[in-house]
Design a protein that fits this description.
Number of domains of chain A: 1
Radius of gyration of chain A: 18 Å
CATH class of chain A: Mainly Alpha
CATH architecture of chain A: Up-down Bundle
Oligomer: homodimer
Strand content of chain A: under 5%
CATH topology of chain A: Four Helix Bundle (Hemerythrin (Met), subunit A)
Distance between the termini of chain A: 56 Å
Structural class of chain A: mainly alpha
Chain lengths: 152, 152
């Protein structure tokens, strides 16, 4: 293998490590808890706004719906590693099984992200019936994870 | 004016009103406070990560830098109306002047958004010297608003 190839591989390894590190770095367990709770709180506000539009409690405005859905999709990329910080099931609503059954937890998280991506696609398409159905599926995928891994 | 023109104008008015409403709707003062504090907390985490890369405390990875800067720019669009909810200067670090001097507060908020937009542009360009200088200006524009409108 020549020097350039080695350099490229080493750069790639450093990049992947550093990118992971940038997401995962929390100095304290409480920082991870505060971070994920803040993400979920903002996300919840905007998901609630989507719900109000879907149910006709506020006027349905396609652009506003897409803007809120896009924000939910962006925020939903953030909190998962913070849920995997050891000890962060103490002093929070997170069940210990979220850590001990990491693969299942992350599977539900990915399913949630997939459903929200479909909701955003439906928002862009703009058909209210498609949006309603995608919103229901997205909400169900939130609930699936909460039911398993959030304390009642 | 013909009927179509009226319909177009009325639709536009409803859209603008509804879009404003979607952003501003907080059932309780505490909801507005929690929302803006959560936004600022997430934003602070990612701005801190940018700072760590700028200062060389973590490896500088352009893609990760851009990702974090993009997130900060997105989050920075959200909290301003929540800072303008009457009574929300009680039980929070917000000074009453943020409400009584709304125009100046929003001017500093817009300046902050402008500097972060420049930081994101610098991140995309990828020159570390430009990024450093834009990061400094963005940080100064955060501080300008905090100095005036956040309690010590």
């Amino acid at each position: 293998m020549n020097k350039n190839a080695w350099t490229a591989i080493c750069s790639a390894v450093v990049m992947i490590w550093a990118a992971g590190d940038v997401r995962a770095q929390f100095a304290k367990v409480e920082d991870a808890i505060k971070y994920r709770q803040s993400v979920m709180s903002v996300l919840g506000t905007h998901f609630t706004r989507l719900g109000a539009m879907v149910r006709g409690e506020t006027p349905f405005v396609r652009e506003a719906f897409e803007e809120n859905a896009s924000l939910v999709a962006t925020l939903l990329k953030l909190p998962w590693e913070a849920f995997q910080v050891a000890g962060s099931d103490k002093a929070s609503a997170l069940r210990p099984e979220a850590l001990s059954q990491k693969e299942d937890f992350l599977k539900l998280a990915r399913a949630n992200q997939d459903e929200v991506a479909k909701l955003l696609a439906a928002a862009k398409a703009g058909e209210l019936s498609g949006i309603r159905s995608a919103f229901g599926a997205a909400g169900a995928s939130c609930k699936a994870c909460h039911d398993s891994y959030r304390r009642k």
